[in-house]
Amino acid sequence: MQRKKRSRVTLQQVAEHAGVSRATASLIVRDSPNISEKTRKKVLESMRELGYVYDRVAANLRSQRSSTVGIIITDIANTFFSELLIGVHHALEKEGYTVLLGTTFDSDSKQDRLLSTMLEHRVGGVILCPVSATSKETIDRIKKLDIPIVLAVRELAEANCDYVGVNYKDGAELAVNHLILKGHRRIAFLGGRSESSTWKERFEGYGLALHKAGIEIDASLLVDSAPTRDGGMEAVQQVLSQPNPPTAAFCFSDLVAFGVMLGLRDVGLTPGQDMAVVGFDNVPEADVVNPPLTSVSSFARQIGSNAANLLHQRILDFEREHQRIILNPELIERDSSFVFRKK
Known about the structure:
Layout: H1 11-18, H2 22-29, H3 37-50, H4 56-66, E1 68-73, H5 79-93, E2 98-103, H6 108-120, E3 126-128, H7 136-144, E4 149-152, E5 162-166, H8 168-181, E6 187-190, H9 197-212, E7 222-223, H10 229-240, E8 248-251, H11 254-266, E9 276-281, E10 294-297, H12 300-316, E11 324-327, E12 330-332
Parallel strand pairs: 1-2, 1-3, 3-4, 4-5, 5-11, 6-7, 6-8, 8-9, 9-10
Antiparallel strand pairs: 10-12
Helix pairs in contact: 1-2, 1-3, 5-12, 8-9, 10-11
GO molecular function: DNA binding
Keywords: DNA-binding, Transcription, Transcription regulation
Domain HTH lacI-type: 9-63
């Protein structure tokens, strides 16, 4: 009679026997120094009791796959993403990863091509800053291939994966409250694509601040556009053509705000004097433009480092629970927002 072959003991079984997570057990078999000696001894004892044998060939194959990861952003010209990339690189390089970068310019077709290319090169994981029109099917396609993915900056409903972002609603409310306290009541919301989750969350905060102050939303002061300098210029030109133009603008991003300032100057108006301008992101240039831009800080580097750390954890333990990290925004007041005095 042929003896039944004994099934191989898995690392998950070792982890359960030792009462630790699979990620912790994985770190121990790879001799990580970041584990306490007490935990290490407990896990090693479980390995001996269960007869666990580390499959180094399989581990090497996994390591080869995960040594390169991809990050896809929407616009390299936006300094927010440059700062985010610094955070990603600093965190991943410490773990020995090589990073492949792709830029979509908010194009769904470009995003699909970049994802296909990265998957063909068998990246070990992807950090994705999704384009405005990203569908849940795009994420499902990656997850079906067992590729770890972390979303950053823009969240997708029902995507069911790790995410790092900012409380955009609270940030927008901070910005608009600031303008209301300065005496402004006609406050435009300029820039960004209205179909994106980040625009919707900012709009929610914008509307909430107005509602609390007893100010009705005026649809003519809502102008969505490309989240770029050109988009900001076009948006401000549109609201300035109205019979009763706004005295202040809350902008989707600092990049849009820079465009708004250029648009104001094009028609002979001075930003920070003829119209108050508030941005979102607090990129480094916000402090050096003229006038310096009041902005909501969204901590781009921290988003990047958190996203990188989540991806690393997901690569180590694909089955771990999903995490959602939301950073709290902070308003940085500068000279572009002024006290409104009725003329």
